[in-house]
Amino acid sequence: MAARRILVAITGGIAAYKLPELVRQLVRAGHSVRCITTEAALHFVSPLVLQSLSGKPVRSRLFDPAEEDGIDHIALADWAELMIVAPATANVLARLSYGLADDLLSTVALATKAPLLVAPAMNVNMWNHAATRTNVERLRERGVHFVGPDSGELACGWQGEGRLSDPAVIAEAAEFALRTATLEGECVLVTAGRTREPLDLVRSLTNRSSGKMGFAIAAEAACRGAEVVLVSGPVSLPTPSGVRRIDIESAEEMRSAVLRELARSTVVVKAAAVADFRPVAPSKRKIKKETLAEGEGWTLELERTPDILAEISREKGDRVVVGFAAETEDVIAAATRKLARKGCDFIVANDVSHSDSGFDVDSNRVSFVWPAGEVETLPKLSKRAVAGEILDRIEKLRGGAA
Ligand SMILES: Cc1cc2nc3c(=O)[nH]c(=O)nc-3n(C[C@H](O)[C@H](O)[C@H](O)COP(=O)(O)O)c2cc1C
């Protein structure tokens, strides 16, 4: 996404030690980042680290003649295109909800017209306290975006809700809050990840797809203002901000979910690695070695799974339908044949034989194969950048901005 001006405001929670990582990720994504802290935050994170990573001086005090050069706190508020408060203490949530302006952070938060993204982190009892719940509700009603907190083991020793979201998830939520609505009005249905076809009660047939490509497409489409439905196989990835997720296991379940959502979707991107075959008669219990004769193997009979992409393409109407072809040899020829068979708008072909692109990594090398025979080959890019390239082409097909 284009470089934006992001103000990261850090408060005095133990999770402040994770904030340099967020700053690093935002800078790496090309954004211009400035940091401010509360006085309490200075106990938990070094301003020198934040300054080194952001490349800009860090401010903490409102009444500091050296820092407050020409009503700088208002200049800072005006400069920001997005303000992130992370970690947000219970104290700062209360102060923001009441609109106090008694330190640098709360004053800038009140003065800025930029959207506010808040990532709370605190003890579970502080988070669940009626006072905090009311403060969060008031902020939500005012249009403040929230990310987290997550559940898990807390620094204080308690278990429960209160962990700061992962810096990557906060960075993702930041992009969502900064979205430019080039896909507004579109409903994008994305499938992602692998499917799992049972052999018996404990074993299954599956593949190596991590879901990262499909999740990147869903995240990017949501950032562009689309309504996004993500039908996902069993993967361990967080749901991107602004995305409605439906979890499925088998190809049959994926088919049902996709067909249920198809009517309202204007764009379908089938990035999932759906099993082509499944066991004909999966056992309802675990098949035990002892039930087979000594030295006897286990012969599986497989049948074809439903061809979801072909089915969608038959119902295509004026939707844009994009398929994926994950291949290990003759990638373009295989994708061209798939395109002719399925009748979608274009195919994203990727070679999954390389260890640094394709399955379960953050980058991908893809080619777009078009019905007229044209092939566009992109260099190795991050999956998020590939998602952007795919959606640029979808926007053109839908007659939009790209
Ligand atoms: C070791 C330690 C850890 C703390 N961690 C948190 C925390 O994770 N979340 C929180 O809301 N408050 C936490 N506090 C309490 C805040 O630091 C305290 O409420 C402070 O006034 C917050 O100031 P600020 O919101 O201006 O940064 C912690 C305090 C200490 C001493």
What helical percentage do the residues reach?
25-40%
Principal-axis shape equals globular
CATH class wording of the largest domain: Alpha Beta
The computed structural class is alpha/beta
Major beta sheet, strand line-up: 12-11-8-13-16-17-19-20
Q: How many β-strand stretches?
A: 21
Task: Write down the CATH topology of the largest domain.
Answer: Rossmann fold
Residue fraction in strands: 15-25%
The CATH architecture of the largest domain can be named as 3-Layer(aba) Sandwich
Instruction: Please tell me how large the radius of gyration is.
Output: 25 Å
Largest sheet: 8 strands, mixed
- The separation of the N and C termini measures 13 Å
Cofactors and ligands: flavin mononucleotide
CATH H-tier superfamily of the largest domain: CoaB-like
Low-confidence parts, pLDDT < 50 over ≥5 residues?
none
If you average the pLDDT, what whole number results? 92
Q: Count the domains.
A: 2
* SS summary, helix count: 13
